[in-house]
Write a structure and sequence with these properties.
Belongs to the RecR family. The chain is α/β, with parallel strands linked by helices. It has helices at 8-17, 25-37, 40-56, 91-100, 128-135, 150-162, 188-196; strands spanning 58-59, 66-67, 81-88, 105-109, 141-144, 169-172, 199-200. The relative contact order is 0.10.
Length: 205
């Protein structure tokens, strides 16, 4: 046991929290000690929520967003504009766009972007299912809302080639978002304006 820890149980708990992204050992220690001070019922509720989430959460069979049911609340909402699909990298991006309250269409979560350096190719992403959605429904516009990075631009271009020849408008969010920025860290006003002021995709955007 590390000499700075009075308990192996404490050390193990801190080690687990420290595995979370952005959480160092000092922050992990603070979180563990906070939980330790709570009533047993509070800690059990916290632990059970995580276990239940892992075992019972689903991914929408249509857009691949996180969901409690086979089809998510957005895809099953008849008030949403089914003729427009906003393509995003992650579930966090869906949440970011929804927070702007400026978009009423549907989504498609790719699960990442093409990144050869990280060993991520087109087959690792939900691109083919996007193509099938566009083929099999009345989709009129596909909005590419990926991060303004080299990987995001590469993915945009790949998708544009896959949708080539289909009767669908292809657009990108306006570049009010700085190059290299990720959607989830963009403020709601800027992101909302970028969606409203989207432009046609030319392959060089």
């Amino acid at each position: 046991m590390n000499q700075q820890y009075p308990s192996m149980l404490l050390e193990k708990a801190v080690g687990e929290f420290a595995k979370l992204p952005g959480v160092g050992r000092k922050t992990a220690m603070r979180l563990v000690l906070h939980l330790l001070r709570q009533d047993t019922a509070v800690v059990e509720a916290f632990g059970n929520a995580m276990i239940t989430l892992k075992h019972e959460v689903k991914y929408c069979k249509v857009c691949h967003n996180i969901s409690d049911t086979e089809t998510c609340r957005i895809c099953s909402n008849p008030a949403r504009d089914a003729s427009t699909i906003c393509v995003v990298e992650s579930i966090r991006d869906v949440m970011a766009v929804e927070a702007t309250q400026q978009y009423r269409g549907l989504y498609h979560v790719l699960g990442g972007v093409i990144s050869p350096m990280d060993g991520i190719g087109p087959s690792d992403l939900q691109i083919e299912s996007l193509v099938e959605r566009v083929k099999g429904s009345g989709v009129k516009e596909v909005i590419l809302a990926l991060s303004s990075t080299m990987e995001g631009d590469t993915t945009n271009f790949y998708i544009s080639r896959k949708l080539e020849g289909m009767d669908v408008k292809l657009s990108v969010i306006a570049r009010g978002i700085s190059i290299g920025d990720e959607l989830e860290y963009t403020d709601e006003v800027t992101l909302g304006r970028s969606i409203i002021n989207r432009t046609l995709f030319t392959g060089t955007a």
